[in-house]
Design a protein that fits this description.
By secondary structure, the chain is of the alpha+beta class. It is built from three helices and two strands. It has a two-stranded antiparallel ribbon. The protein starts with 5 loop residues before the first helix and ends with a helix.
Length: about 70
């Protein structure tokens, strides 16, 4: 995801970072990194159902963090 400024990307990164290890399970794992205004989530999953579940979870978390931080405006 690319944000208008590195600060906005950093705010989202900080908001969702605690979830990275908590959400990982035996069927999917997520890595997160940020470079300037770009935030990347890499999701690995054992099957399509696990991938869809992980994607839905992370997209929801990012969306919530953006709304809470006023980033989506």
């Amino acid at each position: 995801m690319t944000y208008a400024t590195p600060e906005r990307a950093r705010r989202i990164e900080r908001a969702i970072a605690p979830e990275v290890r908590d959400i990982d399970d035996d069927r999917s794992r997520t890595r997160m990194d940020r470079e300037a205004a770009e935030l990347r989530l890499a999701i690995e999953a054992q099957d399509l159902v696990a991938l869809r579940g992980a994607l839905n979870t992370w997209l929801s978390l990012v969306s919530t963090a953006e709304r809470a931080g006023g980033v989506d405006q």
